[in-house]
Structure formats: C-alpha cells, structure tokens
Amino acid sequence: MIGARDGAQAMAKRPTMSHPTNLEIDVLRSFVAGVQLNSFARAAKLIGRSQSAVSLHLRKLEQQTGQVLFRKAGRGLHLTDAGETLLRYAQKLINLNDEALSAVAGDDVSGRVRVGLPPDLAETWLPDLLGRFARSHPTVAVEARVERNAVLLEALDAGALDVALFWCLGEDGTQRPGRLLAEFPIVWIVPAGFAPDDQARLPLVLMGAPCLFAAKAIAALEESGRPWRSVFTSTSLSGIWAAISAELGVTVRTPLSVPAGLHILASGGLPELGRASLRLRAADAPSRSVQRFIDILEATVAAAPSVAGSRIAPNVGRAFA
C-alpha cells in the first residue's frame, strides 16, 4: 500500500486545477518521435536535438503528467497505459500546432496540386494528408492520381503531375533522383493459418507487370530454387487483398497497408526479400502551393504510426520542427 507520505508526494507531482500545466510542443515532438522510431537516439537526430535534451524532455513529461510513461520490457522500453493515452493526444496537439502555423503562413496560397502516389499510400496516409492540407489551404485544389511507379514517373516527366511518390527496391533506390522519405521491409503476406508446403509450388498472387514487388518475389524464389506458380493477377491492390483473403495464395508487399485478417509470414522457409525505399520527386520549380503540400506530406510521414522494421529518413518532417 502507498503510505501517507508517498501519497502526498505523488499528489504534489500532479498538476493542480489552479495552476494548469501547459504541455510544450517541442517536448511532445521528442516523445512522439522517440516512440515512432523506437529509438530516442534516432529521434534526437530527426528533430535536431541532442540525446540528453530528448531525455530531459521525457523526464519533464513524466513530471508534468505525474505518470510513468514507459516500462522496461527486456532491452527495450514500452509505453504504459498512460503513455499510450498521452501519445494519442500528443499527435493531435502536434498536428494542430503545425496546421495552425501552415494556415497562417499559407493564407495567400492558391492554385492546384497534382500528386501521384502508389496504392499502398492511398489506403494509409492519403486521408490524413488530404485532411491536413485542406484545413491549412482550403483554396488549393488537389488532384490525386493512384498508379504504379512507371505510370507516375512518366506523368511527372510529361508535366502532368507536380509531385510523385514511388517505390524503389534494393540498390535501385540509391540510383533514382528524388528525396528518400522512408524505408520498409518487403514481406510475405499470407492468409490466416497459411503454412507453406515445401513439396508444392508456391501459389503467388501478384500485381500484373510491370511490378517491382512481383519481379522481386519471382527472382528471389528462382534464386533459392523454390518452385512457384501464378494463381491470380490484378491491376489493383484491393484485388490482391481480396485474393489473399480468399486463400488463393500469397503475395509480397511492405507491412504498410496489410488489411486486418491477413498476416505477415515471420518464418516458413521463404526467401528474404530485402527492403523497399519510398522516394519523392517534384517537378522543376514547384509553386508555393506544391511546396506547402510537400511540407505537410513530409510532416504526415514523420507522424504516421510506426511500422515494424521501418525507418523514416533523417530530416523528413523538419519543416514544422
């Protein structure tokens, strides 16, 4: 039981109604970045502060809230229930702060933004991105085009897009122009209860050519000597998910947009597939509205929920830091 003295000390740490505590945005930013990157050393680099400064921010948050925000679990740290609650509110407060600054700075921004992005992002980041941009720049029209890499890059080169996000796999990512936003592991995605049969040809559900992920899967299987067969192809990611849900076979993608009910195969004798990098390219001399869209896009990437094995590139999202 907590003694009277301990209870009094605990109460003394909590903010009182007569003196409300104001949470600082830069302190919350350190907290959120550390959780999302699963490393406060990497968070320090991302937000441009020393690791000791980030540690001070975390101690300050615990003092201000009167709660323990992290618990030790093995070699790592995990959020307590209080930490999970604070994380949800911290993300909202940071977003509101950034949107307020963007709205004030962008009062005279108008025109349109034509953005192209792969289907993975349309299912995950696009709703939040569009909402944040519309609240900050309500007079700017946005045209979104969801396509595969080759189509998006051709449209950008032809002047039909202002900005494009696209995937690069392996060493190809270092050869492409544009800015690195994030990296993700490439994983095997399977229906519930799937167990690969070493004696049977692996049933593949893949996007039709040209598809970097399909080519990567086939090359890895053939290099490892694993037999395979194509059982379903689709031009849309929703078609791929439907086929996996129907237990027709397996596919490869990043963990970014795996629907509920499907699983990432942690082991099972299938070959390793490496990593995919997400890059951004903009047309030459982007307008102010396009640049503001890119700023908010990068802030959205930096604030997105973390994905196991992912890495946000340094300085992404720093426009609002």
Automatic annotation (TrEMBL):
**To which protein family does this belong?**
Belongs to the LysR transcriptional regulatory family.
Where does the record place the HTH lysR-type domain? 23-80
Q: Does the keyword rRNA-binding apply?
A: no
* Protein name as catalogued: LysR substrate-binding domain-containing protein
Source organism's superkingdom? Bacteria
**Segment forming the signal sequence:** none
Spell out the InterPro entries in the cross-references: LTTR (IPR050176), LysR_HTH_N (IPR000847), LysR_subst-bd (IPR005119), WH-like_DNA-bd_sf (IPR036388), WH_DNA-bd_sf (IPR036390)
**Protein keywords:** DNA-binding, Transcription, Transcription regulation
